[in-house]
């Protein structure tokens, strides 16, 4: 029986996408899995979130795809035959079905995989990061600026902070040393509240860092940028037929 790293490596190879070493390590070490199985996760999810969370468990609206879901997403939507020859490796999704993918980039990063966010029902796609390591790092930094989404499950800011810190500590072992050091410098920070504006609405949210700290941590990192590439909608795609 294949493990998930073997399965996803086969899918990536078929899509002509090279999996970044960091992502390979997360698959190998089980950091993209939710418990031993569905029953284990349902019974122990709170313990996992606060002690040994899946990678980016502290990140807003992010869920890892298993090998079966990756294969289905490629076959039923993001395959070159229907996407103007472009290949993708979808590794995670939002609750609405938008997907995080690896793909190649045409400019100065030609041949390297970037992380893109593809909307299910919009053309507002973005390049989230120009390397997978930067993607992990920036998601953790962003989680430090607003932990309110964690309160839905973990009920208190203290529990949300514990989840975030466990996520940072766990992923620090995989990140470049400089990035890990920058994140770890904030692990002793207490929870604070800052005002965040959403359109016409302003809310106070629990967080570990304010705007100035965010800017400091993101120095040298490229922020999310628009990706003006046309993606054929899922419902307009014909699935790949068996050979």
Automatic annotation (TrEMBL):
Pfam family, one: SMI1_KNR4
InterPro entries xref list: Knr4/Smi1-like_dom (IPR018958), Knr4/Smi1-like_sf (IPR037883)
Protein name: SMI1/KNR4 family protein
Residue ranges annotated for the Knr4/Smi1-like domain, each copy included: 6-136
Domain of life: Bacteria
């Amino acid at each position: 029986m294949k493990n998930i790293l073997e399965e996803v490596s086969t899918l990536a190879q078929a899509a002509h996408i090279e999996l970044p070493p960091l992502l390979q390590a997360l698959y190998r070490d089980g950091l993209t899995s939710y418990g031993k199985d569905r029953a284990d996760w349902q019974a122990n999810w709170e313990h996992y979130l606060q002690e040994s969370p899946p990678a980016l468990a502290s990140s807003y609206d992010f869920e890892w795809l298993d090998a079966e879901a990756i294969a289905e997403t490629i076959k039923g939507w993001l395959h070159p035959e229907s996407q103007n020859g472009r290949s993708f490796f979808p590794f995670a999704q939002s609750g609405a079905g938008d997907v995080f993918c690896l793909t190649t980039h045409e400019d100065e990063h030609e041949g390297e995989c970037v992380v893109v966010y593809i909307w299910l029902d919009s053309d507002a796609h973005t390049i989230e990061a120009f390397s997978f390591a930067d993607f992990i790092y920036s998601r953790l930094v962003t989680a430090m600026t607003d932990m309110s989404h964690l309160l839905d499950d973990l009920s208190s800011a203290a529990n949300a902070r514990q989840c975030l810190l466990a996520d940072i500590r766990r992923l620090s072992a995989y990140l470049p040393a400089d990035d890990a050091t920058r994140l770890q410098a904030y692990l002793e920070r207490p929870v604070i509240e800052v005002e965040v504006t959403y359109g016409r609405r302003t809310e106070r949210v629990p967080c570990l860092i304010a705007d100035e700290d965010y800017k400091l941590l993101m120095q040298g990192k490229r922020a999310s940028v628009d990706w003006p590439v046309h993606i054929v909608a899922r419902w307009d795609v014909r699935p790949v037929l068996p050979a």
